[in-house]
Structure formats: structure tokens, C-alpha cells
């Protein structure tokens, strides 16, 4: 286990003592039978928060996303989404394997696209030999796109255009609370118009695991069956749901601190020798930068950082990502900047 300042991802958060106490005290039953009271309470709360009628608790956001694709699409249908979204780069080919969809990737380095792009990527030609554009998925915040919270007017435009074209809409809101805090609005307003929404508790919200898929009530039986099909039914999941309920009460507003720490890091990196910051004014909790150190290739750079006590993830050729989260303090960021400055001057 890495012991230093871990900016690898916000998935590195560890449950706090208070969260663990809430987990230990949870009332539990059999989730598969619909008898776990804490899981049921979480599902009801999440559905209300997102403005959808129903919600089910999942072990992970990946599984919730994959079930959403299976819910909306038949084999051979087309899924439209940003080229760099999690569905395409980190779900092991799940959209092809599970939902059997053909993918239409929208070229967009930020992960954001507008209503016009929806029309451009929609297959408007009908005929027995053409595929059917069925679903559009957006990620808010965008992960590899830069941790960006979608501008609300762009989002509303995409939702409206997709609806007018008869597309279903899925929102991968694994970091929707970051987006809501950054946009100073409720998550419900960012989920408006979507047919299904994934939210995740094991990232900035600090839980050990767990996600929610929210959707219309009429789809409950089908989603329940798809979850079972994927091996996602659980037993005494109330202990995990209790962590999520605790996170909703205690860990949402504080995401602002992570965003401030990301801004501090990005501003500091701008004057560090040997790196180039991609997003000097981060929208939420992610900072992307390039290793430009002439004396250290990417592996040597990563190793030098880890030896000095800080870890990032490499997300492309010479491209690194630092993610701030609730186990990272302002002084961790200051220390990180010192470490990088030292590595830069020594090179
Ligand atoms: C945008 C996005 N969607 C989905 C996931 C998958 O989350 P999980 O690890 O809970 O499966 C991630 C994980 O990092 C993510 O960043």
C-alpha cells in the first residue's frame, strides 16, 4: 500500500472512523430479497435526490453503468458518447460485451459536446440496413476530459436535442456531487431529463464501495433482473448503504475544499520546472499535467515522485492526473509542490 500523499484518484479515500461506526450500527437484512432496511432507505433517498422515481444500490458504478446500457439498448443499437468517457476506456469493453452496442464516439478532448454534435452523430437515415442510434451517455464531471462540470446551458441543450431525436439519455454521474458543488446547484437539476443516472459513493464521498442507478419506476423489474444477471444482488449490504447515507450527510459540502486544493495545486504547478499544467483553473478536483522533464522519462518521473512521497496516475503519454479528495489536506498540496519543484530543479 502506498503510504505517501496519494493523488492517484479520489477512489483512494478510506472510510473515516465515524463512517465505520455508522456502518457497524446499520440495521441489516437480505438485500436480494428486498429486506435490507438501510439499503432501502438509501435507495429511496437517492431517487428523491436525483428526481427519479426508483433507485437500486450496486456494488460499483461500472456495474450500474453497464446495466443502464442493457436497460436502454438492444444488441446492434448505437450508443453515442464522448471518445474519452469511462464507458469506453475503463469498462473492459463492457458496452460491446454486455449491451452488444455499436459505439459512436464524439471527438472531444474535454468530454463536453453540444447539441449540434448530438445531431451530427445521430444516424438520421432509416432503412433495414442502418443501425439505430438509441442512447446517449454523458459523464458529469468528465474524468479524462479534465474533471469538468458541464456548463448548464450546454447540458440542457444536449438533453433537449437528444429528446427531440428520440434518444434515451444516461448520465454517468460518478462525480455528480462534485459537479453540483462546483455549479452551486442541486444534483437534481443536473439529472433533469435523464432516463437513468449513476452516482458513486466510493470516490470523493469517501465510502469503501457502492453506487446507485436511478431510473423510472416502470423499469424496476427489468433493472432488478439485470442487476441479478450481472451478479450484483447482495445480502447484508446495509453496512455499505450506511456508509453512503453517512457520506450524503457529511461529505458533500466539503467537496469544495477538494476543489480549492486542486486550484492551489494547479496554480503552483504553473511555475514548476519540468511540468506543464493542462488545466490551470480546474473546474473540480482533477489536475492534469505533462511530464516535460528532459532527464526523466515517464517511468523515471513516476518513480522519483513515489520515492519522494507523492503518487499520481499516468493517463496518457507523458500525461498525468492528480485528484484531490478528503484524505488530502492543503499542507499535502504544499508538500506535493515542494517535491515536484525539487524533482524539477534536480533534473
Ligand atoms: C466517470 C467514471 N465512471 C465510472 C467509474 C467506475 O466506478 P467504479 O470504480 O465504482 O466501478 C469511474 C471510476 O473511476 C469513473 O471515473
What does this structure look like?
This protein has 347 residues and is of the alpha/beta class. The protein has helices spanning 17-24, 37-50, 61-72, 86-89, 94-99, 115-121, 152-164, 176-183, 187-191, 220-229, 238-250, 255-269, 298-308, 330-346; strands spanning 5-6, 54-58, 78-82, 102-106, 133-139, 168-173, 196-200, 211-215, 275-277, 286-291, 310-311, 313-316, 319-323. It folds into 2 domains: 16-250, 3-Layer(aba) Sandwich (Aspartate Aminotransferase, domain 2); 254-346, Aspartate Aminotransferase, domain 1, CATH 3.90.1150.10. The protein is built from 14 helices and 13 strands. The protein is globular and about 60 Å long. The two termini are 28 Å apart. The model has no long low-confidence stretch (mean pLDDT 97). The chain binds pyridoxal-5'-phosphate (PLP). Residues 11, 60-62, 65, 86, 139, 143, 172, 174, 200, 202, 211 line the site of pyridoxal-5'-phosphate.
What are the defining features of this structure?
347 residues; alpha/beta; Aspartate Aminotransferase, domain 1; 2 domains; seven-stranded mixed β-sheet; four-stranded antiparallel β-sheet; 41% helix; 17% strand; binds pyridoxal-5'-phosphate
N-to-C CA distance: 28 Å
Number of strands: 13
CATH class category label of the largest domain: Alpha Beta
By CATH, the topology of the largest domain is: Aspartate Aminotransferase, domain 2
User: Please, how many helices?
Assistant: 14
**Total domains, how many?**
2
- Based on the coordinates given, report the CATH architecture of the largest domain: 3-Layer(aba) Sandwich
Return Rg in Å.
21 Å
- Give the CATH H-level superfamily of the largest domain: Type I PLP-dependent aspartate aminotransferase-like (Major domain)
Amino acid at each position: 500500500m502506498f503510504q505517501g500523499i496519494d493523488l492517484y484518484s479520489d477512489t483512494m479515500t478510506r472510510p473515516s472512523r465515524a463512517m465505520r461506526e455508522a456502518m457497524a450500527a446499520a440495521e441489516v437484512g437480505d438485500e436480494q430479497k428486498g429486506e435490507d432496511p438501510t439499503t432501502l432507505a438509501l435507495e429511496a433517498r437517492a431517487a428523491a435526490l436525483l428526481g427519479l422515481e426508483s433507485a437500486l444500490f450496486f456494488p460499483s458504478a461500472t456495474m450500474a453503468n453497464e446495466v443502464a446500457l442493457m436497460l436502454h439498448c438492444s444488441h446492434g443499437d448505437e450508443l453515442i458518447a464522448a471518445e474519452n468517457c469511462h464507458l469506453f476506456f475503463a469498462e473492459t469493453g463492457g458496452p460491446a460485451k454486455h449491451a452488444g452496442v455499436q459505439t459512436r464516439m464524439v471527438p472531444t478532448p474535454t468530454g463536453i459536446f453540444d447539441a449540434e454534435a448530438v445531431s451530427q452523430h445521430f444516424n438520421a437515415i432509416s432503412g433495414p440496413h442502418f443501425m439505430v442510434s438509441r442512447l446517449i451517455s454523458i459523464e458529469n464531471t468528465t474524468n479524462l476530459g479534465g474533471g469538468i462540470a458541464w456548463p448548464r446551458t450546454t447540458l440542457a441543450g444536449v438533453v433537449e436535442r437528444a429528446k427531440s431525436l428520440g434518444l434515451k439519455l444516461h448520465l454517468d454521474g460518478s462525480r455528480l456531487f462534485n459537479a453540483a458543488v462546483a455549479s452551486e446547484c442541486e444534483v437534481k437539476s443536473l439529472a433533469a431529463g435523464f432516463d437513468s443516472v449513476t452516482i458513486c459513493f466510493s470516490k470523493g464521498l469517501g465510502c469503501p464501495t457502492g453506487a446507485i442507478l436511478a431510473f423510472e419506476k416502470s423499469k424496476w423489474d427489468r433493472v432488478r433482473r439485470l442487476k441479478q444477471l450481472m451478479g450484483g444482488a447482495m445480502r447484508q449490504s446495509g453496512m455499505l448503504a450506511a456508509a453512503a447515507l453517512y457520506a450524503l450527510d457529511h461529505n458533500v459540502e466539503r467537496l469544495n475544499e477538494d476543489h480549492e486544493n486542486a486550484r492551489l495545486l494547479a496554480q503552483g504547478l504553473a511555475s514548476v520546472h519540468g511540468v506543464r499544467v493542462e488545466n490551470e483553473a480546474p473546474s473540480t478536483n482533477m489536475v492534469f499535467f505533462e511530464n516535460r522533464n528532459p532527464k526523466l522519462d515517464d517511468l523515471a518521473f513516476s518513480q522519483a515522485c513515489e520515492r519522494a512521497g507523492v503518487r499520481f496516475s499516468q493517463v496518457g503519454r507523458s500525461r498525468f492526473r492528480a485528484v484531490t479528495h478528503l484524505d488530502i489536506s492543503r499542507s499535502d498540496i504544499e508538500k506535493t509542490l515542494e517535491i515536484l519543484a525539487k524533482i524539477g530543479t534536480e533534473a
